[in-house]
Amino acid sequence: MRAAVLHEIGQEKLEVLDDVEAVGFGPGRVRIRVRATGLCHSDLSAMGGVLPQPAPFVPGHEGAGEILEVGEGVTHLKAGDRVVVCWLPACGVCPACKRGQTELCLAGFMNAGTPNFRRPGGDVFGFAGTGTFTEEVVVDAGCAVPIPDDVPFDIAALIGCGVTTGLGAALNTADVEAGSSVAVIGCGGVGISAIQGARLKGAAEIVAVDPVASRREAALRFGATRAVSPDELADAKQQVTAGEGFDYVFEVVGRSTTARTAYETTRRGGTLVVVGAGAMDDFLQLNMFELFFDEKRILPSMYGGGDVLRSYERTIALWRAGRVDLDGLITHRVSLSEINEALDQMRTGTSLRTCIEI
Fold first, then answer.
1. R_g (Cα) of the chain, nearest Å
2. Rounded CA gap, 64 and 66, in Å?
């Protein structure tokens, strides 16, 4: 079967090969025919070594498709079921799951060290234990979440990561207060979803911050009240908050420099939500006096900071009701053979989400 493979960390291009085999099928596992997958910035981060991932590997973790086969012991799924791929499934029995913090379950991460694929040259891993830039993938049954028939595969794929992460950051982690002021730094697919979440919660002012003009324009369509470049953020802070700072600031880039800017843009007693996934050697510096004196809450948001399955259901309900725009997030569509074009679109910021149709 065909799959897009990164041979070594640091390479910028993927090679689409037709000699890849999905492996690992057995009890408790399912085989999925991938129909659509989104390109998330985390895929680029893994390719570049920002996020830890063994190579060679098949990127992609934001996918949807159909069940081809279920292993022994799998009773909640059958061949033909439509599913979204969940790269962070909850085991239900670990301490985090028992506390209701299923987004902190480590079971899914344990799968990342087991090869999902094989080529004549040896084993191939799947990013985040999945790897959806392929025609088929074998995953634990908990990674396959059934979706209703009226949800298209491309929309379901977005719900699998970016939309859930961005919406959840505003709805779950921050729990944005109605009438508040919000700034979102980084307006790709996740940032736009955070903007939509803040709008749903009734934020009065939502300032979108991004260096790419097309993304700023898109942010206004999705609910931002104004959109500025990073150089204009200080002026926006003055104009919107009289210099005090925003009630909520979402950092959706994953870099210490933008996180520091986000901290400084947050008002005293306000909330900084860290959504972007950064590198282990990139450190955010805060001095102990400001940390005490400013009393700003710093809230990391992992996968939307809430129960993933409930978040999927909520997003589908909001999409059906027309309260969130998911279709508009897909700005480009390509085939698997055009995957490197999709990578370039994300690197240059010309796309919000590119859908790879397989």
1. 20
2. 7
Task: Compute the distance between CA of residue 309 and CA of residue 292 in angstroms, rounded to an integer.
Answer: 36
Look at residues 175, 165, 182, 173 and name the one whose alpha carbon lies nearest to residue 267: 182
What residue spans of 213-338 are helical by DSSP H? 213-221, 233-241, 256-265, 288-294, 308-320
Q: Which of 148, 144, 167 is nearest to 84 (CA)?
A: 144
| Interior angle at CA 10, CA 4 and CA 11, nearest 5 | 45
Query: What's the helix, strand, coil split of the chain in %, to 5?
Result: 35, 25, 40
pLDDT along the chain (358 residues), means of 10: 97 97 96 97 95 96 97 96 95 92 84 89 95 97 96 97 97 98 97 98 98 97 98 98 98 97 98 96 96 97 93 97 96 96 93 94
Q: d(Cα 245, Cα 242) in Å, to the nearest integer? A: 8
Contact criterion met (CB below 8 Å) for 152 and 127: no
Q: How far apart are the first and last CA of the chain?
A: 11
Backbone torsions φ then ψ of 206, nearest 5 degrees: -130, 110
d(CA 171, CA 323): 14
Measured in degrees and rounded to the nearest 5, phi and psi for residue 355 equal -95, 125
pTM of the predicted model as reported, rounded to 2 decimal places? 0.95
Three-state DSSP class for residue 286: coil
DSSP strand E in 122-204: where?
Answer: 122-126, 136-140, 144-146, 181-185
Count H helices, E strands: the chain? Answer: 12, 19
Provide CB contacts within 8 A for 199, sequence distance 6+.
Answer: 206, 222, 223
Tell the burial category of 243 from Cβ atoms under 10 Å away from its Cβ (0-12, 13-18, 19+).
exposed
User: Which SS3 state, helix, strand or coil, does residue 57 take?
Assistant: strand
Q: Identify whether the C-beta of residue 196 lies closer than 8 Å to the C-beta of residue 348.
A: no
